[in-house]
Amino acid sequence: TQxxxxxxxxxxxxxxxxxxxxxxxxxVFSSLQWYRQEPGEGxxxxxxxxxxxxxxxxxxxxxxxxxxxxxxxxxxxxAQPGDTGLYLCAGRYFGNEKLTFGTGTRLTIIP
Amino acid sequence: NAGVTQTPKFRxxxxxxxxxxxxxxxxxHNYMYWYRQDPGMGLKLIYxxxxxxxxxxxxxxxxxxxxxxxxxxxxxxxxxxxxxxxSVYFCASSYPTGGTGNxxxxxxxxxxxxx
Lengths: 111, 115
Description:
The complex is a heterodimer.
Chain A: E1 5-7, E2 10-14, E3 19-24, E4 31-37, E5 44-49, E6 55-58, E7 61-65, E8 71-76, E9 85-92, E10 100-101, E11 105-110
Parallel strand pairs in A: 2-11
Antiparallel strand pairs in A: 1-3, 3-8, 4-5, 4-9, 6-7, 7-8, 9-10, 9-11
Chain B: E1 4-7, E2 10-13, E3 19-25, E4 31-37, E5 43-51, E6 54-57, E7 64-66, E8 76-78, E9 87-94, E10 104-106, E11 110-114
């Protein structure tokens, strides 16, 4: 079974602080995606990274794909209450259309 | 735009009962998926389909069946409901673009409780 481990599992911080969540695997991905899921809804895609070492920015969110394509990180600057949610990474392995989801990081931003 | 539509939204089943979760998408996507999500956890793939008439098992297929007679519809069948199948079920679809970065669109989820 191919596993995607996310850390931390839970994170609760004050508004305005910075944070980083991680997504790790022992296997190499062809691509990796980050999703955010709010209560009562399905996950919504935030970003897709494809190239090793790639960095993408989405306003206050910065996504990085590891050089070896085995890991990824999501950094949030000056967190806002609207950032609260479950963050999921999901990876595709070469030659496989299936998307494997990580274990999730539940983020709570305290006003 | 409807996107991916799942029904029912909520259902309570007794142990041993059967039911079908319906899923339809209006985006002409080739790929469709069923995931389950246990409380506070990530999503686990139950079954997926790469096109009409083709289905394949995911990580946790036991206790479920699927069919894909049309591009639009991908129903998930529970034959003998068990408490372990209490979960939130998400249907999703995507259109492949070389297999590296296509977006998966999710339905709003179906909350199933087996008692």
